[in-house]
Amino acid sequence: MNAGIKVFAPATVANVAVGFDILGFALEKPGDEIIARFSDTPGLKITKITGAEGKLPLDVHKNTAGVAALKLLEYLGEEQRGIEMEIHKKMPFGSGLGSSAASAAGAVMAVNELLRRPLDKRALLPFAVLGEQVADGAYHADNVAPSLIGGMILIRSNETLDVHRLPVPAGIHATVVYPHVEILTKDARDVLSNTVSLKQCIHQTGNMAGLVVGLYQSDLELIGRSLNDVIIEPQRALLIPHFHEVKERALKAGALGCSISGAGPSIFALSANSRVAEEVGQAMKRVFDRAGIRNDLFISPINQEGAVKL
Ligand code: HSE
User: Fold this and answer.
1) Active site residue 185
2) Cβ-contact 24, 266 below 8 angstroms
3) Labelling 191: which of 27, 116, 123, 264 has CA 20 to 30 A away?
4) For the segment 139-196, what is each residue's pLDDT rounded down to a tens digit?
5) Domains and CATH numbers, the chain
């Protein structure tokens, strides 16, 4: 058996408070590992999944990584090529950390590398997004794009995948706390109202624009003032135990801003440097510890690389 190609694809924080479905950034860790190797049997197969407690399907047509890789192989006219894929989940799913997106991004990257890189990394994005769509039925790249290409990514249009990398001021670190309660993205999308008032729209677009200006001008105070979601967070906060207390503690400990990571239940904060990010993390974690809710804490700079071959 040949060793094949091994790829790491990182976890991501989608929405970043004010950019529902259009903004996301990558963490250094955790993430998923995907292995792809040639086999003598024609077609794509998933031969092994670890770290998912039997919750993810081996059927390539039902698995985010499988569908992403399949779409890429179809595009390249290589769908009869014998390829085996292994998925090693090294991050929780249903956590708001872009688990399904990381698997999809890792899969397209691994298969592309195995085939000696017929496409550049950015061109892999549409296939990874199609794969991730299997998880929640919606077509959005706010987890997949940063997991694949790294950085803080603005998606001007999910339809055309018009994606842009935003600058991140030096020193900024993310804190993410994952409380062990499961929220499926589909359920977290179903609770959302389909209507937004004009007042909310004005507020949110002001904050989104303020965040972009703050990132370009390294204006941390402007970034902090702008990380304020008046549309999605109030509706989803109800799904996350102790959300408001965790947020209050994070801001008191010095975070620039704090909100729900993706569809939750993870909660993220951005801080000016790693020391503050650490203090913020301890303050956030303490709330869940006191409530007897198991949790994991991650502290990371913004990962600018995205998926990498190991
Ligand atoms: N933007 C998505 C959401 C990210 O919040 O539903 C999770 O897939």
Assistant:
1) yes
2) no
3) 27
4) 899 999 999 999 999 999 999 999 999 999 999 999 999 999 988 878 888 999 999 9
5) 5-166+305-309 (3.30.230.10), 173-301 (3.30.70.890)
Q: How far is the CA of 42 from the centre of ligand 1 (A)?
A: 35
Which candidate, 175, 140, 176, places its Cα nearest to that of 161?
Answer: 140
Q: Ligand 1: residues whose CB is within 6 Å?
A: 14-15, 20-21, 136, 140, 142-143, 185, 188-189, 262-263
Residues 280 and 269: beta-carbon distance below 8 Å? yes
Phi, psi angles (nearest 5°) of residue 49: -130, 125
| pTM, to two decimals | 0.96
- Is 93 within 8 Å of 99 (Cβ atoms)? yes
pLDDT, residue 92, reads: 86
The CA 243 to ligand 1 mean position distance, Å, reads 17
Q: Locate 25 and state its tokens.
A: 């950034």
The pLDDT tens digits for 230-259 are 999 999 999 999 999 999 999 999 999 999
Q: How far is CA 70 from CA 203, 218, 299, in A?
A: 41, 41, 34
